[in-house]
Amino acid sequence: MEKVTSADGTTIAYDRVGSGSRVLLVGGALCDRNSFRPLADALASEYDVVTYDRRGRGDSGDTAPYDVRREVEDIAALLTALGGTAAIYGHSSGAALAAIAAGSMPFSKVVLHEPPYGPDDADTSDDGGQVLDAIREGRNQDAVEQFLLMTGMPKEVAQQVAATPGLADLAPTLAHDFAVMGHALDQGATPVALLRSITPAALVLAGTATAPFMIDAAHRVAEILPNGSYADLPGQQHAVPPEVLAPVVAEFLRG
After folding, report:
1. What average pLDDT score do residues 35-56 get?
2. Distance from CA of residue 79 to its chain's centroid?
3. CA–CA distance, 150 with 123 (Å, rounded to integer)
4. What angle do helix axes 68-81 and 174-182 make, rounded to 10 degrees?
5. Are 252 and 230 in contact (CB under 8 A)?
6. Are the CB atoms for 237 and 212 separated by under 8 Å?
7. CB burial readout 37-76, b (16+ within 10 A) else e
8. 22 pLDDT tier (thresholds 50, 70, 90)
9. CA atoms within 13 A on the CB side of 48
10. How far apart are CA 159 and CA 161, in angstroms?
11. Would you state the pLDDT for residue 122?
Protein backbone atom coordinates (compact mmCIF):
# COMPACT_ATOMS: atom_id res chain seq x y z
CA MET A 1 0.00 0.00 0.00
CA GLU A 2 1.11 3.52 -0.86
CA LYS A 3 -0.46 6.84 0.10
CA VAL A 4 -0.84 10.27 -1.44
CA THR A 5 -2.15 13.48 0.13
CA SER A 6 -5.04 15.19 -1.63
CA ALA A 7 -5.45 18.96 -1.91
CA ASP A 8 -7.53 19.24 1.27
CA GLY A 9 -5.06 17.14 3.29
CA THR A 10 -6.98 13.88 3.04
CA THR A 11 -4.82 10.77 2.79
CA ILE A 12 -5.68 8.49 -0.14
CA ALA A 13 -4.42 4.89 -0.07
CA TYR A 14 -3.57 3.03 -3.26
CA ASP A 15 -1.90 -0.11 -4.61
CA ARG A 16 0.10 -0.65 -7.80
CA VAL A 17 0.69 -3.90 -9.65
CA GLY A 18 2.30 -4.73 -12.98
CA SER A 19 4.38 -2.65 -15.35
CA GLY A 20 3.83 -0.79 -18.59
CA SER A 21 1.46 2.03 -19.46
CA ARG A 22 -0.47 3.27 -16.43
CA VAL A 23 -4.17 2.81 -15.84
CA LEU A 24 -6.18 3.96 -12.82
CA LEU A 25 -9.22 1.90 -11.77
CA VAL A 26 -12.11 3.77 -10.11
CA GLY A 27 -14.60 1.69 -8.15
CA GLY A 28 -18.29 2.34 -7.68
CA ALA A 29 -20.65 2.07 -4.73
CA LEU A 30 -19.64 -0.18 -1.83
CA CYS A 31 -16.23 -0.92 -3.39
CA ASP A 32 -12.75 -0.34 -2.03
CA ARG A 33 -9.39 -0.84 -3.70
CA ASN A 34 -9.43 -4.57 -3.03
CA SER A 35 -12.66 -4.96 -4.99
CA PHE A 36 -10.77 -4.39 -8.23
CA ARG A 37 -7.60 -6.27 -7.36
CA PRO A 38 -8.63 -9.27 -9.53
CA LEU A 39 -9.04 -6.98 -12.55
CA ALA A 40 -5.76 -5.24 -11.72
CA ASP A 41 -3.98 -8.60 -11.56
CA ALA A 42 -5.51 -9.61 -14.90
CA LEU A 43 -4.16 -6.43 -16.52
CA ALA A 44 -0.79 -6.43 -14.73
CA SER A 45 1.10 -8.41 -17.35
CA GLU A 46 0.79 -5.46 -19.71
CA TYR A 47 -0.05 -2.41 -17.58
CA ASP A 48 0.97 -0.56 -14.44
CA VAL A 49 -2.41 -0.76 -12.70
CA VAL A 50 -3.49 1.40 -9.77
CA THR A 51 -6.44 0.67 -7.49
CA TYR A 52 -7.31 3.07 -4.70
CA ASP A 53 -9.64 3.59 -1.78
CA ARG A 54 -11.99 6.45 -2.56
CA ARG A 55 -12.27 8.82 0.41
CA GLY A 56 -14.22 7.32 3.28
CA ARG A 57 -13.28 3.77 2.30
CA GLY A 58 -10.63 1.31 3.41
CA ASP A 59 -7.38 3.02 4.40
CA SER A 60 -8.23 6.45 2.98
CA GLY A 61 -9.36 9.40 5.06
CA ASP A 62 -12.67 11.24 4.79
CA THR A 63 -12.46 14.96 5.52
CA ALA A 64 -15.84 16.63 6.10
CA PRO A 65 -17.83 18.12 4.53
CA TYR A 66 -18.01 15.89 1.47
CA ASP A 67 -17.87 17.49 -1.97
CA VAL A 68 -17.59 15.77 -5.35
CA ARG A 69 -14.83 18.21 -6.25
CA ARG A 70 -12.72 16.75 -3.43
CA GLU A 71 -13.00 13.29 -5.02
CA VAL A 72 -11.81 14.80 -8.28
CA GLU A 73 -8.87 16.34 -6.42
CA ASP A 74 -8.08 12.88 -5.04
CA ILE A 75 -7.80 11.58 -8.59
CA ALA A 76 -5.66 14.56 -9.55
CA ALA A 77 -3.29 13.78 -6.65
CA LEU A 78 -3.07 10.17 -7.79
CA LEU A 79 -2.41 11.22 -11.39
CA THR A 80 0.43 13.44 -10.22
CA ALA A 81 1.86 10.59 -8.15
CA LEU A 82 1.75 8.41 -11.27
CA GLY A 83 3.84 10.88 -13.23
CA GLY A 84 1.01 12.84 -14.84
CA THR A 85 0.08 10.27 -17.47
CA ALA A 86 -2.45 7.46 -17.23
CA ALA A 87 -5.60 6.00 -18.68
CA ILE A 88 -8.68 5.75 -16.48
CA TYR A 89 -11.31 3.02 -16.07
CA GLY A 90 -14.43 3.49 -13.99
CA HIS A 91 -17.22 1.08 -13.11
CA SER A 92 -20.82 2.05 -12.26
CA SER A 93 -20.85 5.26 -10.20
CA GLY A 94 -17.06 5.05 -10.45
CA ALA A 95 -17.53 5.50 -14.20
CA ALA A 96 -19.48 8.68 -13.50
CA LEU A 97 -16.65 9.88 -11.24
CA ALA A 98 -14.07 8.93 -13.88
CA ALA A 99 -16.06 10.96 -16.42
CA ILE A 100 -16.00 14.02 -14.15
CA ALA A 101 -12.23 13.66 -13.74
CA ALA A 102 -11.67 13.07 -17.46
CA GLY A 103 -13.46 16.31 -18.23
CA SER A 104 -10.65 18.31 -16.62
CA MET A 105 -7.55 16.08 -16.60
CA PRO A 106 -5.27 14.84 -19.38
CA PHE A 107 -6.02 11.12 -19.33
CA SER A 108 -4.69 9.24 -22.34
CA LYS A 109 -7.81 7.07 -22.71
CA VAL A 110 -11.09 6.63 -20.86
CA VAL A 111 -13.16 3.50 -20.21
CA LEU A 112 -16.65 3.96 -18.75
CA HIS A 113 -18.24 0.67 -17.69
CA GLU A 114 -22.00 0.95 -17.19
CA PRO A 115 -22.30 4.48 -15.81
CA PRO A 116 -25.76 4.24 -14.19
CA TYR A 117 -27.37 7.37 -15.60
CA GLY A 118 -31.12 6.91 -15.47
CA PRO A 119 -33.59 7.78 -18.21
CA ASP A 120 -34.66 11.41 -18.28
CA ASP A 121 -38.30 10.50 -17.67
CA ALA A 122 -37.60 8.23 -14.66
CA ASP A 123 -39.44 8.81 -11.39
CA THR A 124 -36.82 10.24 -9.03
CA SER A 125 -39.24 11.29 -6.29
CA ASP A 126 -37.39 9.22 -3.67
CA ASP A 127 -33.92 9.52 -5.24
CA GLY A 128 -32.20 7.51 -2.54
CA GLY A 129 -33.96 9.25 0.31
CA GLN A 130 -34.57 6.03 2.23
CA VAL A 131 -30.90 5.11 1.95
CA LEU A 132 -29.79 8.52 3.19
CA ASP A 133 -32.28 8.39 6.07
CA ALA A 134 -30.93 5.01 7.16
CA ILE A 135 -27.35 6.34 7.05
CA ARG A 136 -28.27 9.38 9.15
CA GLU A 137 -29.96 7.08 11.68
CA GLY A 138 -26.92 4.79 11.89
CA ARG A 139 -28.74 1.85 10.27
CA ASN A 140 -25.90 1.04 7.91
CA GLN A 141 -26.92 -2.50 7.01
CA ASP A 142 -30.45 -1.31 6.25
CA ALA A 143 -28.96 1.43 4.06
CA VAL A 144 -26.98 -1.13 2.07
CA GLU A 145 -30.04 -3.37 1.68
CA GLN A 146 -32.21 -0.48 0.52
CA PHE A 147 -29.55 0.60 -1.98
CA LEU A 148 -29.32 -2.91 -3.41
CA LEU A 149 -33.09 -3.02 -3.75
CA MET A 150 -32.89 0.24 -5.72
CA THR A 151 -30.57 -1.49 -8.19
CA GLY A 152 -33.19 -4.18 -8.83
CA MET A 153 -31.70 -6.91 -6.66
CA PRO A 154 -34.33 -9.32 -5.21
CA LYS A 155 -35.05 -8.67 -1.54
CA GLU A 156 -33.79 -12.03 -0.26
CA VAL A 157 -30.51 -11.62 -2.13
CA ALA A 158 -30.19 -8.00 -1.02
CA GLN A 159 -30.59 -9.04 2.61
CA GLN A 160 -27.88 -11.68 2.25
CA VAL A 161 -25.45 -9.35 0.49
CA ALA A 162 -26.07 -6.52 2.96
CA ALA A 163 -25.05 -8.86 5.78
CA THR A 164 -21.60 -9.44 4.21
CA PRO A 165 -18.99 -8.65 6.89
CA GLY A 166 -17.54 -5.19 6.43
CA LEU A 167 -20.00 -4.02 3.81
CA ALA A 168 -22.09 -1.97 6.23
CA ASP A 169 -18.94 0.00 7.10
CA LEU A 170 -19.03 1.44 3.57
CA ALA A 171 -22.69 2.49 3.79
CA PRO A 172 -21.98 6.18 4.59
CA THR A 173 -20.14 6.51 1.27
CA LEU A 174 -23.36 5.76 -0.62
CA ALA A 175 -24.16 9.42 -0.04
CA HIS A 176 -20.96 10.21 -1.95
CA ASP A 177 -22.10 8.10 -4.89
CA PHE A 178 -25.49 9.81 -4.99
CA ALA A 179 -23.68 13.15 -5.10
CA VAL A 180 -21.45 11.95 -7.94
CA MET A 181 -24.46 10.80 -9.96
CA GLY A 182 -26.14 14.17 -9.46
CA HIS A 183 -23.06 16.22 -10.37
CA ALA A 184 -23.05 18.46 -13.46
CA LEU A 185 -26.66 17.74 -14.41
CA ASP A 186 -28.19 20.70 -16.21
CA GLN A 187 -31.33 19.00 -17.47
CA GLY A 188 -32.23 15.34 -17.57
CA ALA A 189 -30.28 12.55 -15.89
CA THR A 190 -27.18 12.58 -18.11
CA PRO A 191 -24.44 15.26 -17.79
CA VAL A 192 -24.34 16.07 -21.49
CA ALA A 193 -22.06 19.11 -21.31
CA LEU A 194 -19.59 17.24 -19.10
CA LEU A 195 -19.46 14.25 -21.43
CA ARG A 196 -18.91 16.51 -24.44
CA SER A 197 -15.84 17.95 -22.70
CA ILE A 198 -14.09 14.55 -22.62
CA THR A 199 -11.82 14.61 -25.65
CA PRO A 200 -9.61 11.46 -25.42
CA ALA A 201 -10.67 8.23 -27.07
CA ALA A 202 -13.31 6.70 -24.82
CA LEU A 203 -14.86 3.25 -24.68
CA VAL A 204 -18.26 2.65 -23.07
CA LEU A 205 -19.04 -0.91 -21.98
CA ALA A 206 -22.25 -2.68 -21.01
CA GLY A 207 -23.15 -6.32 -20.49
CA THR A 208 -25.99 -7.65 -22.60
CA ALA A 209 -27.60 -9.25 -19.51
CA THR A 210 -27.38 -6.15 -17.30
CA ALA A 211 -30.25 -3.83 -16.39
CA PRO A 212 -31.83 -2.41 -19.57
CA PHE A 213 -31.49 1.18 -18.35
CA MET A 214 -27.72 0.69 -18.05
CA ILE A 215 -27.53 -0.57 -21.62
CA ASP A 216 -29.54 2.43 -22.79
CA ALA A 217 -27.33 4.77 -20.76
CA ALA A 218 -24.14 3.25 -22.19
CA HIS A 219 -25.36 3.73 -25.76
CA ARG A 220 -26.42 7.30 -24.96
CA VAL A 221 -23.07 8.16 -23.38
CA ALA A 222 -21.10 6.67 -26.28
CA GLU A 223 -23.05 8.84 -28.72
CA ILE A 224 -22.46 12.02 -26.69
CA LEU A 225 -18.71 11.55 -26.19
CA PRO A 226 -16.71 13.34 -28.93
CA ASN A 227 -14.47 10.31 -29.48
CA GLY A 228 -16.66 7.63 -27.95
CA SER A 229 -17.25 4.05 -28.99
CA TYR A 230 -19.44 1.30 -27.55
CA ALA A 231 -18.83 -2.40 -26.95
CA ASP A 232 -21.11 -5.14 -25.68
CA LEU A 233 -19.99 -7.67 -23.10
CA PRO A 234 -22.03 -10.67 -24.27
CA GLY A 235 -23.99 -12.46 -21.57
CA GLN A 236 -22.57 -10.30 -18.79
CA GLN A 237 -24.37 -8.53 -15.96
CA HIS A 238 -23.21 -5.49 -13.98
CA ALA A 239 -20.28 -7.34 -12.36
CA VAL A 240 -18.03 -8.93 -14.98
CA PRO A 241 -15.37 -11.58 -14.28
CA PRO A 242 -11.85 -10.21 -14.79
CA GLU A 243 -10.99 -12.92 -17.31
CA VAL A 244 -13.80 -11.56 -19.50
CA LEU A 245 -13.34 -7.85 -18.84
CA ALA A 246 -9.55 -7.51 -18.87
CA PRO A 247 -8.98 -8.53 -22.52
CA VAL A 248 -11.56 -5.98 -23.69
CA VAL A 249 -10.06 -3.17 -21.64
CA ALA A 250 -6.51 -4.14 -22.58
CA GLU A 251 -7.29 -4.20 -26.30
CA PHE A 252 -8.79 -0.74 -26.19
CA LEU A 253 -5.91 0.70 -24.19
CA ARG A 254 -3.45 -0.96 -26.54
CA GLY A 255 -5.04 0.40 -29.72
Report:
1. 98
2. 16
3. 12
4. 90
5. no
6. no
7. bebbebbbebbbbbbbbbbbbbebbbeeebebebbbbbbb
8. very high
9. 12
10. 6
11. 63
Q: Angle of helix 93-102 relative to helix 68-81, nearest 10 degrees? A: 70
Asked if pLDDT for residue 127 goes beyond 80, the answer is: no
- Would you identify the CATH topology of the domain 2-122+177-254? Rossmann fold (3.40.50)
Q: Mind giving me the DSSP string for 169-219? A: GGGGGHHHHHHHHHTT-SSSSS-HHHHHT--SEEEEEEETTS-HHHHHHHH
- Residue 81 sits at φ, ψ, to 5 deg, of -65, -25
Give one word for 110, left, alpha or beta, with left for phi > 0 and alpha for psi -120 to 50.
beta
SS in 3 state form for 121-161? CCCCCCCCHHHHHHHHCCCHHHHHHHHHHHCCCCHHHHHHH
- Report if pTM > 0.85: yes
Ordered by start, the domain boundaries in the chain are 2-122+177-254, 129-171
Q: Give the SS3 label for residue 57.
A: coil
At 225, the pLDDT band (50, 70, 90 cuts) reads very high
CA distances 22 to 82, 84, 187, Å, are 8, 10, 35
Q: Are the C-beta atoms of 204 and 229 separated by less than 8 Å? A: yes
Q: According to the model, what pLDDT value does residue 126 have? A: 62
**pLDDT tens across 104-122, in order?**
999 999 999 999 998 876 6
Separation of alpha carbons 33 and 58, rounded Å: 8
Q: What is the mean pLDDT of residues 205-226?
A: 97
